[in-house]
Amino acid sequence: MSSDDMNSVFSNLSKESQFFLNIDLKMCALLLFIILFCIITASLTAMFVPRYSEYFSNDQFSSYKNIQYSDYASIPLTALDVSPTENTPNNLLFGKANRIITSHIDGKVYFTLDINANLYILGGQVYDAPNQKKIEQNYTVQLVNPKNKKILILGNLKKDNDGLYKLKFKADINDIAKSLPDVKDINELIDYNIVRIVYIAKDATTQESISDQIVIEGDLNKLP
Q: Which of the given ranges, 39-43, 173-177, 195-199, has the highest pLDDT on average?
């Protein structure tokens, strides 16, 4: 259709129709401009603005935290077999270990290990002998280097409100000596790939060791 034909069509419209048509065209143009503006703004934001995020009040929940690199491993913790020849666990306890290594854009590197375990309740007489003297009982989390048999003690599990025993260990790798004096760097720490939960009982008076049993463990190098 030529421009003369278009002009002829518009001239045949009533003034009221021309008025509303003119408004519709302007509204369409404005809407198109807004859409293009939003697309361009979103593209520029994604290109030049780093992914910051808020810190939540509960340390169990966190978002990006401006992380540059992250390595995650999750493994089950299970009981050892009764013997090397019998594929039968010596108990029915279990747990889970989550290891997270994060590198931030400010140069800081963090090693985090979350442990959750379903274990016998301490003080529930499961490990106690009749009429025995008062003892101190703990579930201790250890990291073991299978190459040289060295052990790092991360702390004791605490019973949570949901009945599970838990521990969250976090270390600043740039200041690793503060948390783990026997470790030099992250590469050496990764060699401690066995996560082990040990039941330890001591005489409450003399602190003499009464029991030291491996309850459950898992290997961070053997992901499921």
A: 195-199
